[in-house]
Automatic annotation (TrEMBL):
Keyword Isomerase assigned: yes
Keyword annotations: Isomerase
Range of residues in the leader sequence: none
Protein name: Sugar phosphate isomerase/epimerase
Gene3D superfamilies: Divalent-metal-dependent TIM barrel enzymes
GO molecular function: isomerase activity
Domain Xylose isomerase-like TIM barrel per the UniProt entry, residue ranges: 29-228
Species lineage: Bacteria, Bacillati, Actinomycetota, Actinomycetes, Propionibacteriales
Pfam families, sorted: AP_endonuc_2
């Protein structure tokens, strides 16, 4: 199998240096490489309306936006409205604050996600959480991330960052098999031999093995990400080839 063309996207955090200089031009060039979708992370002074217009002009679909955890309490209705304006289907909390990195803290976050997920559902959206490596820490016999899996699946899904899952000592396949349908979006980020970030297909992660279970996991979007590319455009082009050429 191959990844469907309309499932290959770019998480725009990767392109933040060039977005700051030319947001609409960056989106057009990504579309020229072959990307069909994007995940928004940072507005660079532009409104949701304006970013939507940039994407429309480039022929790209915005599938999600990252929204800080604090906005659940501060302005969740506004955040949901912005994702609606962007045309996205998922609103993503990219991390849990450090002071909540405990069993009790993750239970607090799970309760917050339950209520935020209800509001997202009412707005025609779905709440997702994006993981990092330390979210898989085991505290008093409990893996912190697993606490979030207890939230009603209709209210919380996951934008699964594959690099950070492996970095956290876990296998994405286990989660795809054990929690089917919970992972509609992926961050496809490769790992170099020294453990640093690498372009998709140029590192050591077994994406073919992972993606063999993608359908079971509910995956709809494969979003490229590199946290610190030496050359954003070279990385974008290389990673697109790595994903589009992949057979699994």
């Amino acid at each position: 199998m191959t990844i469907p063309a309309d499932g290959i996207g770019m998480h725009l955090y990767t392109m933040r240096d060039v977005l700051a200089e030319d947001y609409p031009g960056t989106l057009k060039r990504l579309a020229g490489i072959g990307y069909r979708t994007v995940g928004v992370s940072g507005r660079f002074g532009h409104s949701a309306d304006k970013i939507r217009s940039f994407a429309d002009e480039a022929g790209l679909s915005i599938v999600l936006e990252h929204v800080k955890y604090d906005r659940i309490a501060d302005d969740w209705a506004g955040a949901l409205a912005d994702v609606q304006t962007l045309g996205g289907k998922w609103i993503v909390v990219p991390s849990i604050p450090s002071d909540l990195h405990s069993v009790e803290g993750f239970r607090t976050a799970a309760a917050a996600f339950t209520e935020a997920g209800k509001a997202a559902r009412d707005a025609g959206l779905k709440l997702l959480f994006h993981n990092h490596g330390r979210d898989f820490d085991e505290v008093d016999g409990t893996v912190l991330f697993d606490i979030l899996l207890d939230v009603d699946p209709t209210l919380l899904g996951f934008e699964f960052d594959l690099y950070w899952v492996v970095n956290g000592g876990k296998d994405p396949v286990d989660y795809f098999r054990d929690h089917p349908g919970r992972f509609p979006a992926l961050h496809v980020k490769d790992m170099a031999e020294d453990g640093s970030w690498e372009d998709v297909g140029a590192g050591k992660l077994d994406f073919a093995g992972m993606f063999a279970y993608a359908e079971q996991g509910g995956v709809e979007q494969w979003l490229v990400e590199h946290d610190a590319p030496p050359d954003s455009w070279a990385s974008a082009e290389r990673s697109y080839r790595g994903l589009s050429d992949l057979r699994y």
